[in-house]
Amino acid sequence: MAEKPGIFPTFFISGFECSTFVWKDQGRRNLTCETQHHLYAREDYQMLRSLGIAVAREGIPWPLVDKAGSYDFSCIDPFLAAMAEAQIMPIWDLCHYGYPDDLAPYTDEFTRRFADYCRAAAAYVTARLPGQHFFTPINEITFFSFAGGEWGWVAPFKNTKTDRFQLRLSLCQAAIAGVKAIREVIPEARMVHIDPLVQVVAPLDRPDQIPAAYHETYVDTFLAWDILAGKKHPELGGSPEILDIVGANNYSFGQMEYREHGPHAALEPHDDRIKPLCELLKLVWERYERPMIIGETSGMEGGRAAWLKDVIEESLAAVNLGIDLHGICLFPAVDMPDWHTGAWLHNGICDLHPEGENLKRILHQPYVQELRRWQKELNRVTELDTNPFSDPVELQDVIKAAKRLQTQPDQNWH
Predict the structure, then answer these.
(1) 191: left (phi > 0), else alpha (psi -120 to 50), else beta?
(2) Which of 198, 304, 366, 384 has the fewest Cβ atoms within 10 angstroms?
(3) Cα–Cα distance between 406 and 388 in angstroms, integer?
(4) pLDDT digits (tens, 9 = 90+) for 85-99
(5) Measuring CA to CA, which residue among 285, 296, 275, 340 is closest to residue 56?
(6) Can you list the domains of the chain with their CATH numbers?
C-alpha cells in the first residue's frame, strides 16, 4: 500500500492537441486531424506506453459529435480502442475551444446543451472503458475567453474586455453545469480544470500600467478557478468539489509585458522580471489548497530537454514547500502546428515528418533521455507493466527526491 498515494497511475502524463475552434480566417479546424492523431492513435498510445506514461489528455470534439442535441461519438472509437490496448487512462477534454455552430456561448441554451452533451459523453466512455474517469469540461477557460472574447481569434470573435469577461462567466457557468451532469452518470468522476499560469509586468517606461499588469497577474489569472471553487460568483454553483484538481499550464510565453491592445509581449528568457515557476505554483496552492498537476508544459525545438529539467526542478522545489503535486503533463505527445502560421512548433515528445500524405512520428531523443533520467531519479516506472492501474503513484518517492535534491527556484528560462 502506498504511503502517500497519488491520484494517477503515473506521475508523468501526456496529451494530444485536440482543438476544434472556428479559426478567424479558416473556418472550423480539427487539430486531431491536422496532426493525424486520428489515424495514428494506436501508434501514439503505444509510444506513451513504452515511455512509462499511463495517463493522457484526449479530446471529444463537441462541435462534431453534437447534432443539435443528438450525438454521434463514433469518431472517438479509435481512441477508446487504442487506449484500452495500451492501457492508457484518459483525461477527457469535452470542450477544447470548439462548440456547435448553432450555439452562442452567452445564452442559457449553451449551458443546457453543454450539460446534456457532458452527460451523454460520460455515459458513452464509461460503458466502453472501465476504471476511473477524469474530465476537463472546458479547457483553459481564461485563455478561451481572451482568444474568443477580446482578440477575435476564434468564435465567438468578440473584441472587448467586457466581451471577454462575459464569455468567461458563460464558460464557467457551463463548466459547472457540465461537472454536475457528469457526476449524475459517474458520481466518483474526477475533474481537472486547466488554465495557464500567467505573470504580467508593466513596461519599464510605463509605471502607469503597473496596476493593470498587477490585476491581470493576481486577479484575472485566477477568476475562472475562483468561480469554479465558489470563491467568486457563488450564484453559479461553484465549490471546492467542483474545482477538484487544478491543472496549471506552464509555458515561457506565460510571462509577459503588458500591452493595452492585443496579446501581451512575451518576456525574453533572461529578463530579470521573470518569476520562478515554483513561486507561481505556490500562489495557486495557497489560494485553493486542491490537488495540482502541471496541466501542460513543453519547450521548443532543441530546448525541450533543458525545459523539462527546469520544470521538474521547479516542481520539486514547490513540493518542498508543501504543494500537493500529483503529476506533470508533457504536452503535446506529438508535434502540433502553430495556429497562426501552420508551421510545426517542434514541441512534442515526437516530431512529425511528412512522408507523402502521412506524418511519421519520430521521437525527440534528448527529450526522451531527460524524461528517463527523471523517472529514475523519482523512482518512477520507465515502461508500463501488465497492469499499470494496479497501484497509484507513490508520491512519497517524489517527496523524498525533492528533499534529497533540494533544487532551488531559478527565474531564468533555459
Answers:
(1) beta
(2) 366
(3) 29
(4) 999 999 999 999 999
(5) 296
(6) 12-405 (3.20.20.80)
